[in-house]
Amino acid sequence: MLTVRRCSAVGAVMVGLVVIAGCAGDGDRAVTPAAGAVTPVAGAVTPVAGAVTPVAGAVAADRPPSALHDQPGYRTDATVPAVITHGPTGAHRIALTFDSNMTDAMLKRLDTGQVASYANTAVVDELQARHVPATFFLAGKWVERYPELTRRIAADPAFEIASHSYAHRGFTAHCYRLAPEPTTDMAADVEHSFAVLAPFGGRQTRYFRFPGGCYDTAALRAVAATHATVIQYDDVADDPFNDDTDAITGSVLRQAHDGAIVVLHITQDNAPRTADALPAIIDGLRARGYQLVDLSDLLDARPAR
After folding, report:
1. Could you tell me if 216 and 174 are in contact, meaning their C-beta atoms sit under 8 angstroms apart?
2. Which of 263, 240, 155, 233 is nearest to 199 (CA)?
3. Which residues contact 218 (CB under 8 A, 6 or more apart)?
4. What are the residue ranges of helices labelled H in 73-139?
5. For the chain, first and last CA: distance in Å?
6. Nearest-angstrom CA–CA distance, 27 and 178
7. CA 241 – CA 181 distance, rounded (Å)
8. β-strand 93-99 against 261-265: which pairing, if any?
């Protein structure tokens, strides 16, 4: 079982704004984050002060959580969370994770016919055809727009679902082109996203990933009350707004290591080549001896299904 260090509200060690390349905003190309932004070293867990507290273990796929505290990732306290960027080493495992994003601007593009779809069903097709477990970080407004695909994801016992916020606003003042979420509304936004996901059943978790990968000390403090485990990544596919399938594949394979958390996307128009890159990514990782697992398996370091 992985244990993570948690910091007190007073003792968090963090400098400035933290931004990791992930979701690329509201459908426009990403812009350079604000000057002074700090990017963590790949593979590092955000340094924090405080006692070691275990993350709640995973629940069997055939047993729905009987209570919120049974969900994988549920933190038993409301201290400022650590930020997990990778799993433990030694088991030669890697977790593929997929983000969906949906902003009001993206909804407007859909409603006006500027964009055909922000749902990449081919990603799910590829994962299911190749029997690859995965964890999906879904934005609440995306879920509301694409309930059928969400239902399909939730129905597959190889997949688990997690929160990528409700409105996909920035949790820092400057996060690509995302409209900022007021600090006072951050916890409510995260709770709203979990509430939207709950009726779909399946393998629900209490994992949360910040929109755009942007967070700072204030954001971590704001979401502490949700009891969610904050998940980032250290293997960035760079699939948003990227038409080069080989480049996406190469990015994942180049950064691959034991315990890596890979971030990809299922937001079709924003990341149109993700499904095309998946076969080579999957085959390439397996050829190197990696076992592909979901996030709970990676963090718990227990035998994969």
Report:
1. no
2. 155
3. 183
4. 104-111, 121-129
5. 16
6. 10
7. 24
8. parallel
How far apart are the C-alpha atoms of 137 and 125, rounded to whole Å? 17
Q: How far apart are CA 38 and CA 15, in angstroms?
A: 7
| Tokens 């009891």 sit on residue | 227
Q: What would the two tokens of residue 74 be?
A: 């549920």
Q: pLDDT confidence of 17, banded at 50, 70, 90?
A: very low
Q: Hey, what's the torsion of the CAs at 278, 88, 154, 226, to 10 degrees?
A: -130
- pLDDT score, position 68: 82
Read off the pLDDT of each residue in 59-85 and give the average, rounded to a whole number: 77
Helix H or strand E encompassing 132: none
What phi and psi, each to the nearest 5 degrees, are found at residue 206? -115, 40
pLDDT, one tens digit per residue, over 243-291 is 999 999 999 999 999 999 999 999 999 999 999 999 999 999 999 999 9
The residue to which tokens 């996203």 are assigned: 193
With a cut of 50, say whether residue 224 has pLDDT above it. Answer: yes
Query: Which H or E run contains 261?
Result: strand 261-265
Averaged pLDDT of the chain: 83
Percent of the chain with pLDDT over 90: 75
Task: Measure the CA–CA gap between 231 and 141, rounded to whole angstroms.
Answer: 20
Q: Identify the structural domains of the chain with CATH numbers, from first to last.
A: 3-300 (3.20.20.370)
**Residue 291 belongs to what H/E stretch?**
strand 291-293
